[in-house]
Amino acid sequence: MGGRETDVVLLDENGIRSDGRKVNETRKVTIKAGVLKNASGSAYIEFGGNKILAGVFGPRDVHPKHMSNPDTGILRVRYHMEPFSVGERKNPAPSRREIEISKVVKEALEPAVMLEKFPRTAVDVYLEILQADGGTRCAALDAASVALADAGIPMRDLVCACAAGKAADALILDVNNEEDQAGQADMPIGYMPNLGKITLLQLDGVLTTDEFKKCIELGLEGCKQVYEIQKNALREKYFSSGDND
Amino acid sequence: MANLSIIDKLKRSKILDLLQEGKRIDDRALDEPRPLVIDTGVIPHANGSARVRLGDTEIVSGIKVQPDRPFPDMGDKGIFICTAEILPLAHPSAETGPPQPDVIELARVVDRGIRESGMIDLSQFVLEKDKSVIGLFADNVITDHDGNLFDACSYAAVAAIITSKIPKWEMKDDKPVLIENQESDAPTTTIPVSVTMGRIGEFIIVDPNLDEWGCLDARITITTNSDGNIVAVQKGGSDGFTFEQLVKCSELSVAVGKKIRDVIKQATEGGK
Fold it and tell me: What is the CATH number of the domain that holds A46?
């Protein structure tokens, strides 16, 4: 609430943000599919200063066995930050924050993955945050979708994600680390554009109900931009001989 | 609980059939929370406490206030920590041991609603900047589990905080020393109220009970403050919401939250 005090000007008189962006502009996003040899599918994303690796294994046998479900496959997600990914060294053991993010990212992906086609198996998604710069859960979710598709796992849609929020009394797209620390609200959104379904939604910070609505709409615009980048990453890996060489 | 039992499947179809007629399995309206009963001051050893019954879900929340070191980057603010635990006597499926992800999420969502609303003015909890502050710990235990622990815990913690008494400490020789018999009311600024809604098919229901909880497609918890603004949101469950459904949920959270806030106000007036 209110955010912490800071010397940084979050929004100058020309409506330009601390990192030079306009209010409705995302940071630079690049995604590469198929970056790991051993994983069934993988992706690497750079989302502003965030650098994240996603690896997918499966569908494969479930261990421990009692977790397996005869009706459907299960999805397991681990979101994990490297000790060197943030300013002060982070204890490598999973924190409560990481456990919660793992859960919400899993629940954001589940509607997209056709797990019912693989009963008694597990699909494991590992998300490793090599460098964190605000908005890691959205960036990790973006990479996870591409890695799942790269693994050839049937999906209803890609889940794309981007945050929106509020800083210096303005609604902003893709909240960076400074804006998260000192801003007024941060709302990560995950979206399946073809199905019109929002599968990740969190908020901390104060918004009126009208701002809440507008903030979602703004975030969805960012999601759609990321969606194109995700599709391009897959195109580049699987169809590059025709278009991109 | 990975396997949906045949009973659950039958229950789900019954619940869905009823919803088609605009009814719920316990006869409530879709936007109607269960009866909320709040008793405060139930644990005299705590600095503040509340027992909340939301339908058949029961929570005891206790507040402990004690000097602590500030967080390294927040030397000018006191500490607020909120926990939750499903006691093994609350439900046959409840187990002892390290907290599972769903309980960690529960505690963090309740914490976030209170923290982000700015309910507690933590700047008043500083004894010596960067060195010593007052910590307020809200520990919620679930004693009976009939669904929607998010809201029940939130109401219990909020009622306990409002009615808590903050002891006085002063710094002497770099150490906080308790000044006897000088308690003050907790410095609160607003009353955050969380409202959890579930989606089953196309229907949005407020405050799902445990039977309904078992067949939700997705759920969302929205916390509003006394001004009717939204301060925290958490979506959960293995499916999503459309934009229109989310707008409806935000409106519901304000309307239902207002009524709940009145109940909390009434229950905490005597304690303050």
Answer: 3.30.230.70
Looking at residue B272, what is its pLDDT? 46
How many whole angstroms separate alpha carbon B150 and alpha carbon B139? 14
Show the domain range for B45.
Answer: 15-269
Interchain contact, A213 vs B250, CB within 8 Å: yes
Which one has a higher pLDDT value, A5 or A36? A36
Decide if A165 is inside a domain.
yes
From chain A, which residues contact B within 8 Å (Cβ)? 1-2, 4, 67-71, 74, 96-97, 99-100, 102-104, 107-108, 110-111, 187, 190, 192, 195-209, 212-213, 216-217, 220
Domain that holds residue A192: 29-243
- Report the domain count for chain A: 1
For residue A9, being part of any structural domain is answered with no
* Interface contact flag, A110 B239, Cβ < 8 Å: yes
Residue A6 resides in a domain: no
Q: Produce one character per residue of A189-198: b if its CB has 16 or more CB atoms within 10 Å, e if not.
A: bbbbbeeebb
Does residue B4 belong to any structural domain of this protein?
no
Question: pTM of the prediction?
Answer: 0.90
* B135 burial via Cβ count (<10 Å: 0-12, 13-18, 19+): middle
- Is B262 inside any structural domain? yes
Question: Is B239 part of any domain?
Answer: yes
Q: How many contacts (CB atoms, under 8 Å) link A and B?
A: 116
**A235: helix, strand or coil:** helix
Query: DSSP code of A72?
Result: S
**Is residue B3, in this structure, part of any structural domain at all?**
no
For residue B238, with 0-12 CB atoms within 10 Å meaning exposed, 13-18 middle and 19 or more buried, which class applies?
A: middle
Element (H, E) at B261: helix B243-269
Q: What are phi and psi of B213, to 5 degrees?
A: -55, -40
Pair B109, B51: CB distance under 8 Å: no
Query: Which residue among A71, A99, A220 places its CB closest to the CB of B101?
Result: A99
CB atoms within 10 A of CB B94: 15
Do residue B247 and residue A103 have CB atoms under 8 angstroms apart? no
Domain count, chain B: 1
Is the predicted pLDDT of residue A113 greater than 60, yes or no? yes
Give the type of residue at A138. Answer: C
- CATH number of the domain that B87 lies in? 3.30.230.70
Q: Is residue A101 part of a domain?
A: yes
State whether B254 and A209 contact (CB < 8 Å): yes
With CA atoms as reference, the chain B residue closest to A99 would be B101
CA distance B146 to chain A (A): 22
Asked if the Cβ–Cβ distance from A209 to B235 is below 8 Å, we say no
pLDDT tens profile B158-189: 999 999 999 999 999 999 999 999 999 999 99
The CA distance from A178 to A182, in Å, is 6
